[in-house]
Amino acid sequence: MVSRRSVLMYGFAGMPVIAAGWRAPDACRTDERTAFTNKLAIPPLARSHHDRHGRRVFDLRAAPGSMRFRPGAPTETWGFNGPYLGPTLRARRDETVLVNVRNDLPEETTVHWHGMHVPAAMDGGPHQPIPPGTTWSPTWTIKQPAATLWYHPHPHGRTARHVHHGLAGMFIVDEIEALALPRHYGVDDIPVIVQDKRLNPDNQLNEEIPTIGGMGVLGDLIIVNGTVAPYVDVRSTRVRLRLLNASNSRFYNFGMADDRSFALIATDGGLLAAPLDTHRVQLSPGERAEIVVAVRPGERVTLRSYRSDLGINIGDQRFAGGGDILDILELRAASELFPSPPLPGTLGERPVLDVSAPAATRTFELADFKINGLLMDMGRIDVGVRRGTTEIWEVANLDTIPHNFHVHDVQFLILSMDGGPPRPELGGWKDTFYVKPGTRARIAMRFADYADPDMPYMYHCHILWHEDQGMMGQFVVLGPGQRPGTLPMSHAHG
Ligand code: C2O
Ligand code: CU
Ligand code: CU
């Protein structure tokens, strides 16, 4: 059983405040404390075996299930190898993996490896459908540094529904040699998959799109790893949290309830060059961050989501959930703590990318659910890039509502935001980033290893309703002498 709690607050000037005890709209704290009554579920590590080719083989099975998110009827959900979410896949750099993905859902799905550098045919986008009752078995070699990645369905026009139903999981890539960071999974290295659910009075998932707000499904029930009102026991002086925003459209601006600082150690594509001391990290849908929080014996401290800086007007901010203050997860420190090793002063390699002579500079304008004026068409290749080249992409949000931007296959560097340098927390490798209304950002990436003129990768807004509306495009990576192929399916939207 789970307890109900009421933590959704609209606490900005002039707007109604929906929380008992909430008074000062400009204060970032509330006296009301969430009762964290449920032990945080830790997604199990997926079991694997080695096949005769030396590949690490995982098995995922997507199927319906049910969850008790709150008293009353159970909620019908979908999950991998269980009723909700999926196991954490974990593999090392340079390993070859193979994942058997079995679809026992009543409809077609796909499974995409978000943040993974993979051949396009293994990417799990809309061109790799898995019909019900069948198994898809992609395989690839992991050629990227340690990182917190994730997997989720990507069926054409239906991603929001599949993710909101519960299909998502973490994919942890490990370095060949581990650093002295907390890394005992589920003990001092905790997956924190944050989502918001919207339930009908009968407790079933409500996936109707509100007529206002333009953001799609925004829930008022916060869950972490599928757990409502969760706490986690901490037994060491430092705990690493792998934060994943796996929500359809909600942004989170994570910080600790007492405003203590923590170390940001990794972003989407892996470790930063050095830990960054900060007290907030904002994640739009799809983004990840790893933080290390220090705790004192016997204390309880809450991970909270503060108001997000969305760069939009206050009315839109409300409908986008940016004004909400949400309690996410309570850390409960034991009365005696094991000493954690000090954080290393240097973590990953400093990201380097020679951008002095880009092979191309392209512009992607986000407006009106389109990119460069076009809706997603599965039969149209929008961009062909050359393997082994570096490009600069300029991404502009011309709308008044939030959009973010995600590119498959690569990790990129953010070169600038509105002409200035990006904030320090955006200095590492990224695959998804927030583009405020009216902002122009420049990102740079290199297309390495894999070319396939006939099979595209996607780039899109990761607000899932926007993506499903067609705010997505396709690019192919071309080898020497190759030209973009033709795609069998022309699938115009709308
Ligand atoms: Cu996380 Cu194209 O998606
Ligand atoms: Cu992706
Ligand atoms: Cu969008």
SSE topology:
Layout: E1 38-39, E2 48-50, E3 56-67, E4 75-80, E5 89-92, E6 96-103, E7 112-114, E8 135-136, E9 139-141, E10 147-152, H1 159-164, E11 169-174, E12 189-197, E13 221-224, E14 227-228, E15 230-236, E16 238-245, E17 252-256, E18 262-267, E19 270-278, E20 281-283, E21 288-294, E22 300-306, H2 314-319, E23 326-338, E24 360-367, E25 370-371, E26 383-386, E27 389-397, E28 403-407, E29 413-417, E30 432-435, E31 440-447, E32 457-460, H3 464-469, E33 472-478
Parallel strand pairs: 1-15, 3-6, 5-11, 12-16, 15-23, 24-27, 26-33
Antiparallel strand pairs: 2-3, 3-4, 6-8, 6-9, 7-10, 10-11, 12-13, 13-14, 16-21, 17-20, 17-22, 18-19, 18-21, 22-23, 24-25, 27-31, 28-30, 28-32, 29-31, 32-33
List keywords for this structure.
494 residues; mainly beta; Immunoglobulin-like; 7-stranded mixed sheet; 39% strand; globular; disordered N terminus; binds CU-O-CU linkage; binds copper (II) ion
Describe the model.
4% of the residues lie in helices and 39% in strands. With 494 residues, it is mainly β. It has three domains: 192 residues, Cupredoxins -  blue copper proteins (Immunoglobulin-like), CATH 2.60.40.420; 135 residues, Cupredoxins -  blue copper proteins (Immunoglobulin-like), CATH 2.60.40; 119 residues, Immunoglobulin-like. The chain has a seven-stranded mixed sheet, with no helix packed on it. The chain has a six-stranded mixed sheet with strand order 1-15-23-22-17-20, with no helix packed on it. The N terminus and C terminus are likely disordered. The structure holds CU-O-CU linkage and copper (II) ion (2 copies). CU-O-CU linkage (C2O) binds next to strand 7 and strand 32.
